[in-house]
Design brief:
Radius of gyration: 18 Å
CATH architecture: Alpha-Beta Complex
């Protein structure tokens, strides 16, 4: 029965259980509304790749911080022997930080056994904003299939929010395409009729046009061009490698850890 007293069919009730809402920037939805969802945060360039790499290479966990000040304050409360202060602002290493946001920086020798505090311009604030949700997963092209598996293994996968980190509070095509690819693979995997908002429909259309050449997409998108201007072009193929990683960073008690048994 709906709010206006009309009767819903079994098919309509079933389809409602497969709802996906995509948001092109985190500012399109409040923290309170996000509590009703499982949330996948999309941040292709570069937080998802860097954090997945860090966890794959033995980092204990990654604490996302919404600002430089909060990251620095948190690091000051912890023993610096096992803590790395990581992140960037406008793509550049922050003064006083140990590591930037290049996936290549998160080698096993650098991060194994360490606790990471991570503050990036876009991805970290998006993860923190979603922290009250039923579940929070961090996704890029690199772990798309692994995120798909993790979402479908959830006790209650839907409704699902795809929260694009964007760039400087604005739309970024790479995050939208990543979301659209996840929607397409969910559709192919479960065979159910998905219920999509307009942004999710748009993202799925974008994915059809751009998913065949992800390196080309990252080379030509605004953020990719900016990273190239900083001399970070080598990061782009790492971030474009579709499902090259099996690591899904999932938020637990304010920390991003590897998804696995018990998550």
């Amino acid at each position: 029965m709906t709010e206006n007293g009309t009767t819903t069919t079994a098919a309509e009730e079933e389809s409602a259980n497969w709802r996906i809402d995509l948001f092109f920037t985190p500012f399109e939805i409040t923290e309170e509304r996000l509590k009703a969802y499982n949330v996948v945060v999309m941040d292709v360039l570069r937080a998802a790749t860097s954090i997945a790499t860090a966890l794959a290479n033995g980092a204990k966990y990654v604490i996302p911080a919404p600002s430089i000040a909060e990251a620095t304050a948190l690091a000051a409360q912890l023993s610096r022997d096992n803590v790395l202060l990581c992140g960037e602002r406008e793509g550049k290493l922050i003064d006083g930080f140990d590591v930037g946001n290049s996936p290549a920086d998160y080698s096993r020798d650098r991060v194994r056994g360490r606790h990471l505090i991570f503050g990036s311009t876009n991805g970290s604030p998006a993860v923190v904003k979603a922290s009250g949700a039923r579940g929070v997963f961090l996704c890029g092209f690199v772990n798309l299939n692994a995120v798909l598996d993790a979402v479908l293994a959830s006790a209650q996968p839907f409704p699902l929010a795809l929260l694009c980190a964007g760039r400087n509070s604005r739309f970024s095509i790479e995050d939208a395409v990543c979301g659209g690819m996840l929607i397409a693979r969910l559709r192919a995997r479960n065979g159910k009729m998905l219920v999509l908002n307009d942004a999710a429909r748009t993202a799925e259309i974008l994915a059809r046009d751009f998913s065949a050449d992800l390196p080309g997409l990252l080379s030509q998108c605004d953020h990719g061009k900016y990273l190239k201007s900083l001399g970070m072009e080598s990061d782009l193929p790492l971030c474009a490698a579709d499902s090259s990683s099996t690591i899904v960073p999932v938020l637990k008690d304010g920390r991003l850890v590897k998804y696995g048994k018990g998550n």
